[in-house]
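Give me the fold.
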Amino acid sequence: MDTSLVIVSYNKRPYTELCLQGQLACNPRADEIIVVDNGSTDGSREALAGPLQAEAEAAGVRLHLI
């Protein structure tokens, strides 16, 4: 059974990054993480599409940025 985690964010880059890092450190972790960014202007999308995307993929977690 797949487990999904949905995170909704608007200009909360530091908190969203911490939430993702915490989830990736959990065992067991979600199979899929969906981050819904509501038009942030604080660089949230760019931060999540970079190193955190690679970290999620390395952990076998599908990370979707919407």
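Strands lie at 4-9, 32-37, 62-65.
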